[in-house]
Amino acid sequence: MQSELATILGVEQTGGLGSAIKKKEELGQEEFMRLLVAQLNNQDPTKPMDNAEFLTQIAQFSTVDGIQNMETSLSNMGESMVSTRVIQASSLVGRDVISASNQAAFAPGEEIEGVVAIPTSASAVQVHVSDSSGQLVKVLDIGNVEAGIHKFSWDGLLDDGASISAGNYQVTASGLIDGAVEALPAFVSARVTSVSIGAGGAEISLNLDGGESVSYTDVLQYL
What we know:
7-stranded antiparallel sheet, Immunoglobulin-like, alpha+beta, 2 domains, 5-stranded antiparallel sheet, elongated
């Protein structure tokens, strides 16, 4: 029986069944059917294989084969989705995005732009711009606004007409809600300088011109 199985699996007689198993780590559909035919040819005539058992073996193999095919399809789909995300992220290099970051890189002649997220109607909404040391350099009055996303921009000019220095600045916001001052989420625009891709493409990060990195999934808007 062992020699017949070795012949079915396509190995030398001297190698034995053990060599066949080593050479073929898993059986494909063709090998399975050959083994099944060999099993039928070498069964005890006085104890033939039960029909139910025969059908069960075929059904079990079909189920396993179907699961393997499905796993392969899902794996290919996952790889395709990762490739698509990498291409989309790479296309953002050189463009401005608004992400879940309040760090702005300023250069004279440019503007600091961003949005304030207002959860409900608020009054006396202000945007505060501070330098890298935490020193407040500018307060922008937004006024009374309804709930929603509100844009703001600042050219970097102070009240005396002088421009702030190039560098990184932090933007925060606040407003009166139901008579109490509350901090409001503020996000700024930044230019994407490069893209970093983690192992297997599981994590894609955008590197911004201010030196900060944010997850690709944290991008709120492309400009």
